[in-house]
């Protein structure tokens, strides 16, 4: 028998949590850090005609494709975060009292389903997901830490099977840990900063030399991004 989902009482605490979550979403992406990463990538690939990478050769053309993939991904990430923030203030938003609080709303794009939010206990946003129109696959998924900072964002593909087309992760200090994407439909790459973590008894401190390490993986089947 169908049981209705419990409601989330409309009170000042709920409105404050939604507002706080919207603010977190709008400031989730450090555009200054993204710009620095892009500049460092360009400098690294332009400094030589090819980059030796564990037996793999990354040519200048491949480097350009990697940079373009990262740029497009970053723009999509900023756009999604702003859209998700705006939808939290929409009168069409439906909220539920499941767990620590949930919300959902239909997206505006033609081939997408719902935008689904989950929240921490008495706190702000925990995660947000954009689904396909049939609700069977996640096109976008973002996860936030206890400090309210974004620590994971991924874009999905359905070809040839459910697959995360591109994704980025961040450490506790808000700095990028790694980025993974696909170029030419079949070449998966991962890059991460050349740095070291050191433990100072309180927190992790990351120091970077401004260079990136790369890993390449030739996929057996082509993967096409579908948004």
Beta-strand residue fraction: 35-45%
Largest β sheet strand count, sense and barrel closure: 10 strands, antiparallel
**Uncertain residue segments:** 196-208
Q: State the end-to-end CA separation.
A: 35 Å
Q: What structural class should be given to the helix and strand makeup? A: alpha+beta
- Percent helix range: 25-40%
E-strand count: 12
> What do the pLDDT scores average to?
84
Number of helices, counting only DSSP H or I runs of 4 residues or more: 3
Strands of the biggest beta sheet: in what spatial order?
Answer: 3-4-5-6-7-8-9-10-11-12
Shape: globular
Q: Over all CA atoms, what is the radius of gyration?
A: 19 Å
Helix-strand sequence: HHEEHEEEEEEEEEE
How would you describe this structure in keywords?
single chain; alpha+beta; 227 residues; 26% helix
Question: How is this structure best described in words?
Answer:
- Helix 1 (12-26) packs antiparallel against helix 3 (60-87) and helix 2 (31-46) packs antiparallel against helix 3 (60-87).
- This protein has helices at residues 12-26, 31-46, 60-87; strands at residues 50-53, 56-59, 94-96, 102-106, 112-119, 125-132, 138-144, 150-157, 163-170, 176-183, 187-199, 204-218.
- The model is unreliable at 196-208 (pLDDT under 50).
- The protein is α+β, with helices and mostly antiparallel strands and 227 residues long.
């Amino acid at each position: 028998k169908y049981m209705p989902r419990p409601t989330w009482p409309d009170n000042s605490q709920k409105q404050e949590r939604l507002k706080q979550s919207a603010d977190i979403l709008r400031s989730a992406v450090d555009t200054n850090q993204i710009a620095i990463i892009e500049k460092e990538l360009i400098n690294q690939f332009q400094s030589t005609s090819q980059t030796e990478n564990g037996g793999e050769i990354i040519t200048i053309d491949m480097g350009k494709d990697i940079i373009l993939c990262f740029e497009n991904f970053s723009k999509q990430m900023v756009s999604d975060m702003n859209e998700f923030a705006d939808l939290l203030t929409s009168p069409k938003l439906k909220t539920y009292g499941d767990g620590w609080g949930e919300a959902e709303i239909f997206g505006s794009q033609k081939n997408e389903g719902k935008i689904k939010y989950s929240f921490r206990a008495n706190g702000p946003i925990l995660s947000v997901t954009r689904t396909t129109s049939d609700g069977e696959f996640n096109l976008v998924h973002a996860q936030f830490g206890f400090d309210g900072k974004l620590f994971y964002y991924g874009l999905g593909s359905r070809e040839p099977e459910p697959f995360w087309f591109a994704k980025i992760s961040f450490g506790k200090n808000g700095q990028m840990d790694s980025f993974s994407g696909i170029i030419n439909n079949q070449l998966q790459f991962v890059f991460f900063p050349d740095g070291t973590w050191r433990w100072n008894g309180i927190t992790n401190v990351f120091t970077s030399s401004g260079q990136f390490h790369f890993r390449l993986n030739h996929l057996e089947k082509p993967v096409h991004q579908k948004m």
